[in-house]
Amino acid sequence: MQEELASALSxxxxxxxxxxxxxxxxxxTGGASKEIWKFEVSNAKQSAKMILRRGSGxxxxxxxxxxxxxxxxxxxxxxxxxxxxILAVSKNDEELGDSxxxxxxxxxxxxxxxxxxxxxxxxxxxLAYQCGEAIAKIHNVDINNxxxxxxxxAEDQLEDLYSxxxxxxxxxxxxxxxxxxxKEQDFGNFQESLVHGDFRLGNIIVNAEGLQSIIDWxxxxxxxxxxxxxxxxxxxxxxxxxxxxVGGFGEIEDLLEGYNSISKLKVDKEMVKCWQVFGTxxxxxxxxxxxxxxxxGTINSIEKAAIGRRVSETEIDIVDLLFLxxx
Amino acid sequence: MIFDxxxxxxxxxxxxxxxxxxxxxxxxxxxxxxxRITNNVLGMVQREIDQGEQLSEEVIKAMSAIIKSDDLxxxxxxxxxxxxxxxxxxxxxxxxxxxxxxxxxxxxNPNYSTYKKLIK
Lengths: 327, 120
Fold this sequence. Notes:
Oligomer: heterodimer
Helix content of chain A: 40-55%
Order of helices and strands of chain A: HEEEHEEHHEHHEEEEHHHHH
Distance between the termini of chain A: 48 Å
CATH architecture of the largest domain in chain A: Alpha-Beta Complex
Number of strands of chain A: 10
Helix content of chain B: over 70%
CATH class of the largest domain in chain A: Alpha Beta
Number of strands of chain B: 0
CATH topology of the largest domain in chain A: Aminoglycoside 3'-phosphotransferase, Chain: A, domain 2
Shape of chain B: elongated
Number of domains of chain B: 1
Largest interface: A-B, 34 and 37 residues
Order of helices and strands of chain B: HHHHH
Distance between the termini of chain B: 36 Å
Shape of chain A: globular
Radius of gyration of chain A: 20 Å
Radius of gyration of chain B: 19 Å
Number of helices of chain A: 11
Number of helices of chain B: 5
Number of domains of chain A: 2
């Protein structure tokens, strides 16, 4: 199987003028619904490390096509947002399937390692500011380049998430309460932006100097820019470091200072709060979607089964935010 | 129960120990990651067997103070909230939702940061 993949990769790379032997194919832990392969391409002159990111064909209802992720990365790199350079894109009907090949970026994406290992100790205090800057760059991109992306205003997303939750017929008193609470909120009528949709540890590459690359664009859409800020401040993405509101590593003030240094829209802490609740509810529904993909037999996976029991993490975060003064 | 020891909980513990001590180090990284998930799942099952009944009963008892009918289920509570048949600002309702959330996470993931913070 690996030989077939290696030969398909060589062929694809040749199409874009990169000639070489593919070797050292190694599967990496990706998202739950993507295949990620690291490999090397070498010829007489040089060798380079690359990544294949490939859709499984059974992505959730919120995900865009994998090849479209590459189209976004090609655009945002022009405004200085740190993303891996795209080398080749493959469509669904091609040998490699819905996928793309990009440069391998040195660094770490596994959240717990970034938060724990000595190597990143100096990076963590500056990471929130860097993330703020990077998110602002994404939001400043001209959205006319992204007619292929879905438009998802907050109110529409909330209704979609709620009806998705309802479709599983697994009633949650906390989700019902959260939905009614969220319906009452003013999400802010800001200029529509490109929203990454899943900006957090796990989906960024970090080295000793800090933020290197933003990856995993499968939940990208056009919508309210505050969504990305609320998402990265959700407890779901703090990996046990509850007191560090931004991703388990930083302070919200630093994130917003970095954001406001670049963004046209100036954001304060209060504007982010309802987006934290929104993000937590959204993650809860995504957990349900993943779990039911396993339960209804679409895909047999221990990860997807396990994620069904992470819904309760989002419930306790919601009651903490709404009733117990959680941040 | 008519079954002998090891109990279901003890059997699961034995499986977890086996995976942890004999299998974990034999696996390549991407499978080691899945084994960690597998062990987490077994831990949930074990806690549900050991504590699930008591944790559920606590919630049902608390629900009986708020729900007037005999239908003391999370489904009924969801419906009452959805239809706003309950006062959403009622502190007793909020306390109930906190208890429900705590008791669920106590089985699903007692190491979860928010739970640890709240039971301090």
